[in-house]
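Z., the sequence and structure:
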Amino acid sequence: MNCPACGRELTTMTAGPIEADVCANGCAGIWLDHFELEKVDEQSETAGATLLAIPGDPSLTVDADRRRSCPKCGPETVMMRHFESVARRVVVDECPSCGGIWLDAGELNVIRSEFPSAEARHDAARKAFSEMFDAQLAAEHAKSEAELERAKKVAGALRFICPSTYLPDKQDGGAF
């Protein structure tokens, strides 16, 4: 496989339970197959420590804004960019086809330093979700409650017109 950032040949490096493809003596990027990032993304995971110091070529410059092709699927598959976590400190390239992730030099260090554990990462995600959507969800809930109260009032008025009772949980009988 060739490096999606600088085009050099990737070499395989064993890091605990995974085999990562790295651009040693090139741009120092890391290719991780689907679900491999979660095995090395926390500080407590010692397997990831071996991937923190990949030797690179200091004279090499890489265009960080250039779209990258998946080294596994081929040049016709362009990787998508997205934030790795709610902290929004690292943008990773992910293949939409195979799910592999390309990390530029130093990005794994930042990912590992963001949260001390998966629990802390989940707490941060819950907090961000709450900040973004709690007000809207509460407004929708209040709107639904108000519509239910209006429906109960209309049903209460109609029960005198029809012999059936339309109030929720109050249908004891009637013509319908």
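The mean pLDDT is 85. The chain has two domains: 11-116, 117-167.

Let me know what you think.
H.
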